[in-house]
Amino acid sequence: MQRNLIRCAVLATLMSMAAIAHAAGNHAGGHDHGDAAIGEPGDAAHITRTVRVDMADTMRFNPAQITVQRGETIRFEVINSGRVRHEMTLGTPAELLAHAEQMRKHPEMEHADGNAITVDPGQRGEIIWRFTQAGTVDFACLQPGHFEAGMRGAVQVRANQS
């Protein structure tokens, strides 16, 4: 009986450690957005233009609405002008909501995925993204409380006109 309790305790500890290791830190390659409706990581050699996005402690992105053409590869130059850590994550509303929940549980996560960048105060980073389908691609700051405070935006992807 006591041996089973010890085994269960060891197993629970190992499972907790694995979950923490998976959720914390850089989760590069943790998400596959290659065939998603939001597009795919872009190639720096094919950048069409650069869009500067400022993240502020007012829990807003500037600009919060961006328009691109389907097929464009955009370099988002993401600037944190605030005093707290912010991030920009591209995704569907469902992905962003689910990821915001994970961030509440594991606020120490940093992002190295192609669709996200975590930026410390006074620093800058970039996302290079190719928009493959017309429609709306949402973005948000998923630091705990920021998404809930309204730190969100959208990229309108327009179909190419012939």
Automatic annotation (TrEMBL):
<keyword id="KW-0186">Copper</keyword>
<keyword id="KW-0574">Periplasm</keyword>
<dbReference type="InterPro" id="IPR008972">
    <property type="entry name" value="Cupredoxin"/>
</dbReference>
<keyword id="KW-0479">Metal-binding</keyword>
<dbReference type="InterPro" id="IPR000923">
    <property type="entry name" value="BlueCu_1"/>
</dbReference>
<protein>
    <submittedName>
        <fullName>Cupredoxin family protein</fullName>
    </submittedName>
</protein>
<dbReference type="Pfam" id="PF00127">
    <property type="entry name" value="Copper-bind"/>
</dbReference>
<dbReference type="InterPro" id="IPR050845">
    <property type="entry name" value="Cu-binding_ET"/>
</dbReference>
<keyword id="KW-0732">Signal</keyword>
<feature type="signal peptide">
    <location>
        <begin position="1"/>
        <end position="23"/>
    </location>
</feature>
<feature type="domain" description="Blue (type 1) copper">
    <location>
        <begin position="51"/>
        <end position="157"/>
    </location>
</feature>
